[in-house]
Amino acid sequence: MYSISRARFGAHAIRRALLCGGVLLAAAAQPVWAQNLSLDDALSRVATSDPAIVANAARLEAADAAILQADVRPRDVVGADFEDFAGTGPYSPLNRSQTTGWYERTWERGGKREARIGAARADVAVVGAQNRVRLLDRLARVQAAWVEALAAEAAIPVAETRLADLKRVELDVVKRVTGALDPWFAAERARTNVAQAEIAVEQARENARIARANLAAWWGGTGDFKLDPALFQSFEVTVPPGGDSADVAVLDAERAAAEAKVKLAETGNVADPSGRVGFRHFGEGNDFAVMVGGSIPLGTKAANRGNIVRAEAEQRAIEADIAVTRVEIGREIDRLVAERGLIAAEIKRIDAEVLPSASRAVRLIQDGLARGGTAFTFLEFSQAQTALSEARSRRVELLRRFHLLGVRLDRLTGRHAPLLATMETAR
What we know:
Layout: H1 2-28, E1 35-36, H2 39-49, H3 52-70, E2 77-83, E3 98-106, H4 112-178, H5 184-216, E4 225-226, H6 229-233, H7 246-267, E5 274-282, E6 287-295, H8 300-303, H9 305-371, H10 378-413, H11 418-425
Parallel strand pairs: 1-4
Antiparallel strand pairs: 2-3, 3-5, 5-6
């Protein structure tokens, strides 16, 4: 009975090994119609179909409308006055009333209209710069999704390799158990590890499918594309070229807008005169007369002094923010480059030292188990294989972190800024 159970267990393990091997081959086969998707392809698709483009266009239209409104001068006024149409004594008859119809116009002085238009145009520049930052942020999120998809794809062969190693060793352990070289629990432990590895492979494939779908959702597509694994394996550390980022460009536009607002506030120191002309009708005698008048505000400098001080203070604050932002961006770029250098150095050491040593240990134990010797046990193989799998997974995670840091670096340096022209014209 004991021998029959062992034989059944061995046959079951062999059948499962063949079945899982076939499943691995079938899953590894890519459909012939799937095409490789590069980062430029993904960003280009988003650049022509992102709904954020419509929102940015609406913001620019609103800012352009402010220019039209700034060009409007004070509206003329038409009015009428009725005097003495009711009263007591000699003013009670309606024929003693006086009626005046008048027309009034205000003349703007001190360049108010030009200053308003200039401030509105400066606001348009601010909105445009802010739109560029929003688009760059979205492109960075697309690039991060692309990196996550690559990382998910890279995790699949790690899980598949571990499963293949465990399945080969499971067959060897079954032979050793049937030959009374290892105890029965070793076969059960091998079987458990294989089942866990099969689950890990399924999860890795599902994670990759979800990551591709998340990436394709940015342009409303499907995940029927392939990703070049060689792009994920590249980890060259390059220093990006210098230059102001899009964030500094926003502050520059805000500084220009603040300067325009200072000029607009200064125009408030100049009074705007108004003139009035009209006709007066006298009820008694039915006579007409022409009336002319005018007015000019007093104390305008004192009344607008607070607005000028506030606008000048806002301008100084933005100038200080520009200096601070340049320093912070430069510091963050240096930090990102340094971190990527550390990660690249660790990956190189894993490739040169850890993986070869761990692979040799697994191979030696596998050979020993296959020869049927007693120098090694399944527990030793499990520990060695776990160390190898962890090293491979660690390498994938380091590459993922390396490329995600590159996403932030590309965002700060404006690497994908040339795509903004396409996005800004796709309205």
